[in-house]
Design a protein that fits this description.
With about 280 residues, this protein is of the alpha/beta class. About 40% of the residues lie in helices and about 20% in strands. The protein has 9 helices and 9 strands.
Length: about 280
């Protein structure tokens, strides 16, 4: 797992990312309904989450009516964390998946068959240090410090050793990545043989009436909520647009397979509003 360099430590405990030249990548990428460069998208995504970091969890509850909590619980049900695993949670920002993973691993045993302590290790990696700082504070409030690291980094070039983690998760983050195939290739690289990949992401609504209601909510109501609660309508308009630009669940499953991960399976949640994708490195 990454080891913080004391020469470059931050007062908030977040390990900084390795520097990179975002401006130098001129390939096209979607930023909502706009076409920008890959480099610009990385910079703009950081700006979005810098803006909403301190209100991100509240906005998630307001945006979904709290249903995102049920989706994350469903993710843990399927993942079935075990004691002693090392999780890499990418785009894990404020720690929701990390905290659930630690809690579930404890409930699922907490000891090896030999009876010795089996600590669970979690590395949270996020592009935006402001999100990580919020997550770290939440972890401290829960008494979760040992075995939990917060690392600033890009999903496309993870600061993590190859074949070093048992589980890779990413929840509501993959659609914000500038180069999704590169991120999926990185997921395969860092997983150990036999390691598990799982992604929770918004998807395309299947029901014909529900999809119209969802569009009305996403493009008319959600930005207004963002303006009132987070004082940032533009960021939430981008988040709504990014959902519409993300591939369908079947197409994303094919992309996961193209990255070299195997046994790809999909579960649609809430009529297709969200989807879980599971795969393995074999």
């Amino acid at each position: 797992m990454p080891v913080p360099d004391p020469r470059h430590s931050r007062p908030d405990g977040v390990q900084p990312a390795r520097p990179r030249d975002d401006a130098g990548d001129a390939r096209p990428a979607d930023f909502g309904f706009r076409t920008v460069t890959v480099g610009d998208k990385r910079r703009m995504v950081r700006g979005v989450f810098d803006s909403v970091a301190t209100r991100y969890d509240l906005m998630n509850d307001l945006m979904s009516g709290g249903i995102h909590r049920l989706w994350k619980d469903a993710m843990m049900d399927w993942l079935a964390p075990r004691p002693g695993q090392h999780l890499l949670d990418v785009a894990g920002g404020t720690g929701d998946i990390a905290f659930r993973f630690i809690d579930r691993s404890r409930r699922n045993g907490g000891r090896t068959p030999a009876g010795t302590a089996a600590p669970t290790r979690v590395t949270v990696c996020d592009l935006t240090p402001a999100m990580l700082a919020v997550g770290r504070d939440r972890g401290v409030d829960r008494g979760l410090v040992d075995g939990l690291d917060w690392v600033a980094g890009n999903a496309e070039t993870l600061p993590v050793a190859s074949s070093s983690v048992d589980v890779y998760t990413i929840a509501f983050g993959i659609r914000n990545v500038a180069d999704i195939p590169a991120a999926l290739a990185e997921a395969r690289r860092v997983l150990k043989p036999g390691g598990r990949f799982m992604c929770l992401e918004f998807s395309q609504v299947q029901a014909p009436v529900l999809d119209r209601l969802y569009d009305l909510y996403s493009f008319s109501i959600l930005p207004r909520i963002g303006q009132v609660v987070a004082r940032d309508a533009a960021s939430y308009r981008y988040l709504a647009e990014s959902i519409r630009k993300f591939p369908t669940a079947d197409r994303f499953a094919a992309m996961i397979a193209e990255a070299g991960l195997r046994q790809v399976k999909v579960r649609l949640l809430s009529g297709g509003i969200a989807a879980l994708h599971s795969a393995w490195k074999v």
